[in-house]
Amino acid sequence: MTTPPSAFPDVEKLVVDVLKADPALAGATIAVQAPAGFDGTQSAVLVNRRGGAWIGDLHVDKPLIEFEVYGPTKQAAHVLANGARRALLATMGKQIGVNFVSDVEEQDGPRWLPDYVYRGANRYLCVIQLSLSVF
Fold first, then answer.
1. pLDDT in tens, 51-96
2. What does DSSP say about strands 99-112 and 44-55: parallel, antiparallel, or unpaired?
């Protein structure tokens, strides 16, 4: 078995860059944390790594990526969640920088989940697992 890398690839940045490049998501905030003044009613996709594993023998990182997707209405949040999912699912088989995306698998979502921090929020959660080979 090979040793894991000293640091995983910055998959959050990779996913943010993928989503920001998608014209269907223009107008939404795409970030790893909520911007100043965020109250949960704006169109936003917040991207976070929620675990995953390094598969040493294969030299593959398998991060779980969570999207917290917000919109001014429940329907708008749902449409945005589907757009973000589509954009990330479309990376399968593509080279992105020094990473090759060999697999993309949806684990959960989109799932409606009230947000207790932002009481007026319309929020959906999605979890997608990537398989990344690092070159």
1. 888 777 777 899 999 999 999 999 999 999 999 999 999 999 999 9
2. unpaired
Quick one: which of 64, 83, 63 has its CA closest to 124?
83
pLDDT digits (tens, 9 = 90+) for 92-135: 999 998 899 999 999 998 999 989 999 899 999 999 999 998 76
How far, in Å, are 17, 21, 58, 111 from residue 114 at the CA level? 27, 28, 38, 10
- Of 124, 127, 35, 24, nearest to 74 by C-alpha is 124
CA nearest 95: which of 5, 3, 7, 9? 9
Q: Which amino acid makes up residue 128?
A: I
Q: Nearest 5°: phi and psi at 33?
A: -150, 155
